[in-house]
Amino acid sequence: MATRFRTVQGGARQSNNETYFDYSLLFTVLFLIGFGLMMIYSSSSYKANLDYDDSAYFLKKQLQAAVLGIAGMIIVSRIPYHFWEKLAVPAYIVSAALIPLVLTPLGYSSHGARRWIRILGISLQPAEVAKLGMVIFLACLVCKMGRRIRSTKGLIALMIPPGVIAVMVWKITQNMSSAIIILGIAMLMIFVASPDYKRFIVMAILGISGAALIVFAIVKVAESPELTEKLGFRGLRILAWLNPEAYADDKGFQTLQALYAIGSGGIFGKGLGESIQKLGFLPEAQNDMIFSIICEELGLFGAVAVILLFLLLIWRCMIIANNAPDLFGALLVVGVMGHLAIQVILNIAVCTSVIPNTGISLPFISYGGSSVMFLLVEIGIVLNVGRSIRLKDL
Description:
The protein is mainly alpha-helical.
């Protein structure tokens, strides 16, 4: 009992009859939101002043989304999480129905991509809705299937719903990064629920091998200048990842500028607000590449501090998942934890050129209203699952 009790340090422990509340998780999220607002202003003020004649333009929009998201988090944290089990199927249907709307008059383009819709004056990215909807639906589906998930047929049946959503996101909105995140969340939830890990090891080996073969094939095709032009947008991005200097005027430009920002920051950085790359050199400095600006202004020290905060956040989610009263609650938290972990890893990997460049935001820090609002709603669900833990049971 003493060991279990120590696993929840950081939460409320007034008496054995009290419910658990993870203040460490809440304060970490709020700190990341505040830090994100500061970095968004720092990285976007120059561009905002040029484009909108208001240096705080992006800050104001993100602050509005953050306030709405925090309000949503507070409300959701008070709703018993089993309420979402009743809405699992509608959540999946709504997620699937919103994606094609980007092709209707409700949809609009930004930065060359048509991934957003506007309903009643509110801008929304359907891919963010799909991530949350998939977590709820898959958690419910795993619980209903029970032991059948151990069979190959059960595994295939579980992968079909997230596979359909991922393909829709990829093909309709041309958002491969969100499709990868949705599949990654699904795989993690199924992995945690399944006692047979061998199948997942085989799948991981096959996936890595397939990715390596694709990269090798693209490199071979690129040896012929006539065929290189037929590789397409993503093929050229892989070539730019392998040799950014050769594509410095095109697909490799953003990667090179991000690396310049990271390298010039040193140990302690140039100082908050002193970035050079944000002055029109690094595209999307306040969005996908904000980690590079953090490295430039706050140095290795700031980058490590941010990574440690995300590790703390993920660890607190893991603690709540381990102590959740039932499988449904545990899987909800695992889904949110997977969403956060995958997105953080991929964003930092892109900024540091560990993987090819693709549009992935840094949770709670990058500019993006839909992202921060739905992430905060997910945190509200995690907090509610934490509230269901009774200290007398620990």
